[in-house]
Amino acid sequence: MIELSASLLLRAYAAGIFPMAENADSEELYWFDPERRGVLPLEGFHVPRKLRKTVRRGPFDLRFDTAFRAVIEACAEPTADRPKTWINGDILRLYTELHERGCAHSVECWSGGQLVGGLYGVALGGAFFGESMFSRVTDASKVALVHLVARLRAAGYTLLDAQFVTEHLSQFGAVEIPRSEYRRRLAAALAVPTDFGGVDQEAAVTALFGAEV
């Protein structure tokens, strides 16, 4: 039996494969390599007008990588729209280790000293693999996503993997591409040097809005 480890997880992502559990109590992880992959185009990312105004108003204190474990635990909480989660104990352990190694990041929305929304994902070269997001107040996860895209663009990333296209992600321009095209883009992205932390976030958001048509 192959031992699950953070290193194995990184090799899987580099090959275009990602894990999910059936539910929070499951002791097994299943590997996915969809025939059609969801991606969010960094150069064609669309921010709805109302959301753009919200981002500019700045209702949240935006932070990166200050509460990774809390973000992934919040993503694992059941909601009315998502009564079951695919995040089990192994997912929590492995992705926390990836974060400690600098390979997984969180985007966090805070309000009144409380974590109210955010997302997390894995970074390899110029590829970022979005894993999950959560929102405890209106628009918090959407604001986090906008700030993530702004940062990825500024840091030189070329691929934002969304795994599957949902109605929620479609409003931002998410599209499906064939597995062969995804693997081509992934191979190119893995060779790109990036610096997730070395970004002026305010300038990055301004550049994103200025580039949007």
UniProtKB/TrEMBL annotation:
Presence of keyword Metal-binding: no
InterPro entries, per database record: Acyl_CoA_acyltransferase, Leu/Phe-tRNA_Trfase, Leu/Phe-tRNA_Trfase_C, Leu/Phe-tRNA_Trfase_N
Record EC number: 2.3.2.6
GO molecular function, one term: leucyl-tRNA--protein transferase activity
Gene Ontology terms: cellular component: cytoplasm
GO BP term, example: protein catabolic process
Catalytic activity of the protein: L-phenylalanyl-tRNA(Phe) + an N-terminal L-alpha-aminoacyl-[protein] = an N-terminal L-phenylalanyl-L-alpha-aminoacyl-[protein] + tRNA(Phe); N-terminal L-lysyl-[protein] + L-leucyl-tRNA(Leu) = N-terminal L-leucyl-L-lysyl-[protein] + tRNA(Leu) + H(+); N-terminal L-arginyl-[protein] + L-leucyl-tRNA(Leu) = N-terminal L-leucyl-L-arginyl-[protein] + tRNA(Leu) + H(+)
Subcellular location: Cytoplasm
Gene3D superfamilies named among the record's database cross-references: Leucyl/phenylalanyl-tRNA-protein transferase, C-terminal domain, Leucyl/phenylalanyl-tRNA-protein transferase, N-terminal domain
Keyword Oxidoreductase on entry: no
UniProt KW keywords: Acyltransferase, Cytoplasm, Transferase
UniProt cross-references to Pfam families, sorted A to Z: Leu_Phe_trans (PF03588)
Function recorded in the entry: Functions in the N-end rule pathway of protein degradation where it conjugates Leu, Phe and, less efficiently, Met from aminoacyl-tRNAs to the N-termini of proteins containing an N-terminal arginine or lysine.
Sequence similarity: Belongs to the L/F-transferase family.
NCBIfam families: aat (TIGR00667)
Record's protein name: Leucyl/phenylalanyl-tRNA--protein transferase
Gene field: aat
